[in-house]
């Protein structure tokens, strides 16, 4: 791949947006839950919406709800948010091949919208040799749309909470997240040399998940797999 | 809520937004300022799929046969069709059917 051939087009934005819609639907279910829980936790609908518009990071927003109350533990919330979102550091670094070839304005605005879902889809596109870096922005905007629209729907509907909406497992939507990530993972298969790397990542993630709170398991699993891959590629 | 509490809530949300963007932009900021060695390149190349593995593992720990079977179905559908939407919906349909009719 020629290193100067990375583009950033409107078509790439549209392509990313459309391909991300199925993932957006899964995000929608969680946004509904966030919106409803936010009102129950004592947040005003405006505050919940501001959080979805400005923070735009589901896991850390749900954790913040656990800590929300009349007396806000401000520092604890900010620190927890930072730690829960630390995994983004690795994800942003992994987008290097696309993002260092476009202007900082484009790359750093794309990164504002980067989520687990849109990142996973984009890194797959990049890995398969696609050259339009705007895909990351487009898929991120798609998730942004679904997340904010569902937050609004959730806070609006919180007055008449329905079991079917409060518990997405009833219609299997809690499994959407797992299914999407499993499907994306299969697209990364490049032969048997992948097996030890993924086993190490799985094992380290599992152990970290049991031992440490928060999202450290993603960081340690990703680091362990990357280091295994780096070590094995030298031989 | 008093005006003061409103303000504290807003500042908290704004700071959450700030530290979150720091994590989103920090990775590129670092790797765009270094010229990675071959070993570091290999690390960057293998990290994405490892992150996916790490994300998946806890969502399957302690889950019942419905989820494990549906996960297998979703994986097979993805391998055969190479299509995300087909894989997603075959997983969703499998898990809801199994939960309602088999492993209740």
- Main sheet summary of chain B: none
**Which regions of chain B have little confidence, pLDDT < 50, spanning 5+ residues?**
none
Based on CA atoms alone, the radius of gyration of chain A comes out at 19 Å
Order of helices and strands of chain A: HHHHHHHHHHHHHH
> What is the helix fraction of residues of chain A, given as a range?
over 70%
Rough shape of chain B? flat
How far apart, in Å, are the first and last alpha carbons of chain A?
Answer: 24 Å
Strand tally of chain B is 0
Instruction: Give the % helix of chain B.
Output: over 70%
Q: What integer value in Å does the Rg of chain B equal?
A: 21 Å
Beta-strand percentage range of chain A: under 5%
Q: What is the assembly state of the chains in this entry? A: heterodimer
Assign an overall shape of chain A. globular
**Count of distinct strands of chain A:** 0
**Class from secondary-structure proportions of chain B:** mainly alpha
* Number of H/I helices of chain B: 4
Describe this structure in words.
The complex is a heterodimer of chains A (235) and B (104). Chain A is mainly alpha-helical. Chain A has 2 domains: 10-188, no CATH class; 190-235. Chain A is built from 14 helices and no strands. The radius of gyration of chain A is 19 Å and the shape is globular. The two termini of chain A are 24 Å apart. Chain B is mainly α. Chain B has 2 domains: 1-34; 45-104, no CATH class. In chain B, 85% of the residues lie in helices and 0% in strands. Chain B contains 4 helices and no strands. In chain B, helix 3 packs antiparallel against helix 4 (84-102). The radius of gyration of chain B is 21 Å and the shape is flat. At the A-B interface, helix 2, helix 3, helix 5, helix 6 and helix 8 of A face helix 1, helix 2, helix 3 and helix 4 of B.
